[in-house]
Amino acid sequence: MKALKPRSPSRRSGAGVRRPASSSAVDLGRAALSRGEWDQAQRAFERAMRLAPSAEAAEGLAMAAWWLDRADLVFDARDRAYVGYLDRKDYIAAARMAVWIGWDYSAFRGEQSVSQGWMRRAHQLLEGRGDCAERAWLAIREGNAALFEDANAEHARAFADEAVRVARAVGAIDVEMVGRALGGFALATSGAVADGMRELDGVNAAVLAGELGDPVAIALACCYLVVACERVRDTERAIQWCRRLKQFCRTWGLRPLLAVCRTQYASVCVWRGDWSEAERELTTATEELAASRPAMTADGLVRLAELRRRQGRLDDATALVEQTAAFPASLAVRASIALDAGDGPEAVRLAERGLRQVPAHNRAERAPLVEILARAEASGGAADRARTALTELVETARVAGTAPLAAAVSAVEGAIALAAGDAKAARPHLEDAVDRFERLHAPFDEGRARLDLARALAETGDKPAAAAEVRRAVARFESMAAAGDLARARELLARLGGGTTAAAQAAASTLTGREIEVVRMIAAGHNNSAIARRLFISAHTVHRHVANVFTKLDVPTRSAAVARAAQLGLL
């Protein structure tokens, strides 16, 4: 596949700066924008504003500053452009600025009410003025808000259809493709995965063919595809497009969109067990967004919290997720943390809270919460309620038709049967889950499914096979440094008689009672500060205990200490 390369921006796209120029400085600025030379564009438009202030120069300056993440300049310049167009009664251009200002208030400041006010102002300015690219962009912005803020895929599809209709009527190919991408994403979210992904693939084929010219339109189309892939767990497609979008962003200096893309790519890395790369991407993206667009940091923080949860660092995961509002993705991570900590009722409460925010027809968005709810209900012995949740997950997997959702269904079916005491019925479901996750290169989920399978095998009397499954799980968790699950796996292996030796027992006898307490808290995901608070001792004392544990157990890291302690039966 060739690299993404935009064509020359369409005069009628409505996303960039209009073609007519009133000065050579404005012409130079527009030329720099078309090349992605944002600093040079800013200097040219600033010169134009000094020589002969105009709405066009202010609009160009705002666009250059937008790409450079210079928020104060963005707001000032866009306000000037808006007032300038309004003063000369160019209401369509003023509406274009109103749409952009609404987007700015959402992206830079997270002020959704103000953003909606500007969208309404754009409607007023366009009233009775017929079809134009600005009207199509307004529909896209409203569809985006319907999908991401209101979780209403049906409304988003209606806005997307309107954007496509208007864009086709005026020949704005860039806006039409973004509208199609938004519509495809809404379809996939509602469960019509095949139809939605076909639409998204078609749009991105147009991107690769160079049919689009506006970098904003190109990046939005690609982002919609990547987020849709993530939502329906189509990891292979997501990886391919993330890489292409990241390269495109680097080539054109699209820093804000690169940061967003990094968070999406990191989630794919988390799924595939590439946790070092996920950590790098999430840390960089979150820092960049915090510095320039703090309103957009929540998504990265939630994804980083999920990584910390999988690593077994539950305190760190909790601290991260508590910095975000209680939206569905955040609540899903909070519920998973509660379930990992053994608090099934709290996991149920949080999952149900998240599901109340997502309409029933948003199947793909609901799936993670439904999966957690089924597991949490099963862990508390509420088999009937667990099976009710499972029914929804099964239907979502049937409609979506993606392999990761099918694997999740098998894992949950097995977990419910196992919790209900029917190990014989659980076994085939868990074997299917293991096989599917292995084919999907999802080592963490595969490892967890193997632990459940081992428990089922042990309960049916096949302890050698159970121990073999645990050893495979241990290998998966060791490769990722998943400390919490590694400790649980080692403990299960010891109970099955496959992990403890006389020499190991001798090593265990050298640990003091307090050191054993400390290593157990490490295994539970607590950091040194949290351990100090819980044991009412200083952080320095905790550090000394941890060092003693490393020495006595002859291990170099916290995760290795947890693994050795589990092997010794100390957890």
Please describe what this structure looks like.
By secondary structure, this protein is mainly α. Among the domains are: 24-253, Serine Threonine Protein Phosphatase 5, Tetratricopeptide repeat; 422-499, Alpha Horseshoe (Serine Threonine Protein Phosphatase 5, Tetratricopeptide repeat), CATH 1.25.40; 501-571, Arc Repressor Mutant, subunit A, CATH 1.10.10. Helix content is 78%, strand content 0%. It has helices at 24-35, 38-51, 55-67, 71-87, 91-109, 112-126, 133-148, 153-170, 173-189, 193-208, 215-231, 235-252, 255-272, 275-292, 298-311, 314-321, 328-340, 344-355, 363-379, 383-400, 403-419, 423-439, 443-459, 463-480, 483-495, 502-508, 513-523, 528-535, 539-553, 558-567. Helix 29 crosses helix 30 (558-567). The chain is elongated, with a radius of gyration of 27 Å. The chain starts with 23 loop residues before the first helix and ends with a helix. The relative contact order is 0.06.
